[in-house]
Design goal:
The structure is a single chain. With 429 residues, the chain is α/β, with parallel strands linked by helices. It is 45% helix and 16% strand. α2 packs across α3, α8 packs parallel to α9 and α10 packs across α12. The protein folds into 3 domains: 153 residues, Nitrogenase molybdenum iron protein domain (Rossmann fold, 3-Layer(aba) Sandwich), CATH 3.40.50; 191 residues, Nitrogenase molybdenum iron protein domain (Rossmann fold, 3-Layer(aba) Sandwich); 30 residues, no CATH class.
Length: 429
């Protein structure tokens, strides 16, 4: 893990490399993904079965085999340890309570002249949730995607998740039961995104697709956007930490590794004005690595995509972190709330020494589906509004038309839209 001095002659080049951390070479897989999507669009379940045989190494004999039986979900839920079940329920309740506060409201504004303007907010009819698998199973991602859809009032929630060799993680099944999921399918990758976007003989077409995935999933979501809505195009996981001279190096090390263990492409960046903290944190990282179950993955991530930046002061640390706009940002400083106004861009901000990033992954309440690769400059975390839409309401009275109609007709005339102009003017006579 390299230590970079912000005042060094090579810093600009090294920092620009960090800024490009989340760039995914989607062009390199677009042809493959486009072909998979087209096969799903034209051949539905037939294509799904071929893709599952090729990528997940099991054979779908009947269409019904694609669907995950709700009895299996119930059985998994009933069989898990009571302590784990309590933890799942605590996570559910906290995530639900947080997202309930996000519910947007419909409103009406009544003007004195009889004009009524307003906004009607309603849930989409159906949502597709992609829950990744592969190197790890993520029941927490099911909770984070399903609960805001439930709070929004989505009636039809469809889950797709890969099932290597036909098997589904028991805890993921238990989380599905807790969320009352009725329609879930053993389909992963770009194929799942295509099935949710276009529909097949078994999997219904949805209105919005949410959830993280690998480069094939991200590319597929980008390619079907417009056919359906999507939450964001998420890349590899990442963490940024701003630390002062009082920070605990052992805390810093494990927090950096909490993202590095996700996959080799994950990014972990510590920024501090303290050279001593930089050196100590690096030492602690390599000590902690030796004890990790996912040591190889975390080592590759830390070596190739991890960095510690030493700045002249905390102000410069904030400035650089805003340019990075990390998915997760920890403020490991003595007074984190004093620093908060200086932070503009981050998916989620974790305040103080006792708020490690994993607490947000599982149980704090805010969503862990977050913008990556610098897209926190314009994307927000997944939330209730991703599963809702707004409709404008306009009601004109005769008096209101008399007051603003002439201006409307003039603007229409200026744009050369004759029928627009006359549609208004006929009501003014």
């Amino acid at each position: 893990m390299k230590i970079i001095e912000s005042q060094s002659a090579t810093f600009e080049d090294e920092f620009n490399e960090l800024l490009g951390r989340g760039k995914m070479d989607m062009q390199s897989v677009e042809a493959i993904v486009g072909s998979l999507l087209n096969e799903i669009k034209t051949d539905g379940n037939g294509a799904l079965k071929e893709h599952i045989h090729k990528f997940d190494k099991w054979d779908v004999k009947e269409d019904i085999d694609l669907q995950i039986d709700t009895e299996l979900m119930k059985k998994a839920y009933n069989s898990i340890d009571s302590t784990l079940k309590d933890a799942l329920h605590l996570a559910y309740d906290r995530i639900y309570a947080f997202h309930q506060k996000q519910l947007p409201k419909s409103w009406m504004d009544f003007e004195d002249n009889g004009i009524v303007l307003g906004q009607k907010v309603s849930a989409v009819d159906s949502a597709g949730l992609y829950i990744p698998g592969g190197k790890a199973a993520y029941p927490s991602s099911l909770l984070m995607n399903a609960i805001p859809a439930i709070v929004a009032g989505v009636k039809n929630i469809v889950v797709c998740t890969p099932a290597p060799e036909g098997e589904i993680n028991e805890l993921l099944l238990a989380a599905m039961h807790l969320c009352k999921i009725e329609f879930a399918y053993k389909v992963g990758g770009a194929s799942a995104i295509g099935a949710l976007a276009y529909g097949t003989q078994s999997i219904p077409k949805v209105d919005v697709i949410t959830g993280p995935g690998n480069i094939f999933v991200a590319t597929a979501k980008k390619m079907v956007f417009g056919e359906v809505n999507i939450d964001m195009i998420a890349g590899p996981s990442e963490i940024g930490i701003i630390a002062d001279a009082e920070a605990n190096p052992a805390f810093l090390a494990l927090d950096l590794l909490s993202q590095a263990e996700h996959d080799e492409m994950a990014s972990s960046i510590l920024i501090t004005p303290s050279s001593k903290i930089a050196r100590s944190a690096k030492e602690e990282v390599y000590k902690a690595l030796e004890k990790l179950d996912r040591k190889e993955i975390a080592t590759a991530s830390i070596e190739n995509r991890g960095a510690i930046i030493v700045t002249k002061d905390i102000e410069e640390a904030c400035k650089l972190m805003n340019e990075i706009a990390p998915e997760h940002l920890e403020l490991m400083v003595e007074n984190p709330f004093d620093l908060l106004p200086k932070i503009k861009h981050a998916g989620a901000i974790f305040m103080g020494a006792y708020t490690p990033e994993p607490i947000g992954d599982y149980i704090a309440g805010p969503n862990h589906t977050l913008p990556t690769g610098g897209t926190a400059k314009f994307y927000s975390p997944l939330g209730v509004e991703n599963f809702m839409k707004k409709t404008s309401i306009i009601s004109m009275s005769r008096q209101g038309m008399d007051e603003i109609g002439e201006a409307c007709a003039l603007l229409a005339q200026t744009e050369g839209l004759d029928a627009h102009q006359k549609s208004v003017e006929i009501r003014l006579k």
